[in-house]
Amino acid sequence: MLTSPDQFQIEETAKMYKSFTAAALAICVAGSANAATCGNDASGFAAWKQAFAQEAAAAGVGQRGLQALANAQYSQSTINADRNQRGVKYALNDFIRIRLGSIDSFAAQARRVKAQNANFYASLEASYGVPAGILLAIHGMETGFGRNMGNTPVVDSITTVAYDCRRASFFEPHALSALILVDRGGLDSNQRGAAHGEMGHTQFLPGNALRYGVDADGNGRVDLYTVSDSLASTANFLRQKGWQPGQPYQEGTANFRVLNEWNAATVYQQAIALSAAAIDG
Length: 281
Prior knowledge:
- This protein is an all-alpha fold.
- The longest helix is centred in the middle third of the chain and has 17 residues, at 168-184.
- It has 13 helices and two strands; from the N terminus they run H-H-H-H-H-H-H-E-H-H-E-H-H-H-H.
- The chain has two domains: 5-85 and 152-201, Helicase, Ruva Protein, domain 3, CATH 1.10.8.350; 92-149 and 211-280, Orthogonal Bundle (Lysozyme), CATH 1.10.530.
- The chain has a two-stranded antiparallel sheet with strand order 1-2.
């Protein structure tokens, strides 16, 4: 990712919490008779995994997913990142300078990426109504166009935060989703991502990947570590959240409000909209 620990708070309630409804996946964790008990350090992780495996099996997780859970390691780096969020906030100009350098330089880079496969971006806009500029701005903001998708094993990080008491109820369904993705071949059990389980080119949490993922290349599985599946899934997410094709997306519009579903930080939304306009010209 393009964030440092000092910048992480912008995304605590934003990228890290791209909207996800557990009910949409028909997964119920809280009511389990054998509900796994959360903890605040590594000491209870093994016992939690054993209990969570029963919940996962009841939710339909198969052998590959269960084996990935059994092999999962407590991620201290995830907990460190979680605890080191400092509540830093930026004015728009500072955010752009720190994250992008400048709108012009970022847009120029995005246009070069677009030129490598212009037909692909045109096909996404035709299918979902989301302009190339928006998708490229998100791709660049999230992972530098795929250069930095994270270095923490996804199953380790997502099970760690599902076990951790601070936000266990939020992350448990995402942990189950990650195991389901392993079963389906959409996530390698050792695949790496960001500190809280965000995965792929545009950093979906596993539950969102399961719900909004698109097999754009037609190979029979959703793989968010490919550009085609990741950006098609991003476009699908925005469309499902209310994106209106052919309508403006600058601040004050309905489409700008849809960007809040992707990232709840206003400064992030502003930077995406400004960058997209510069990319699309």
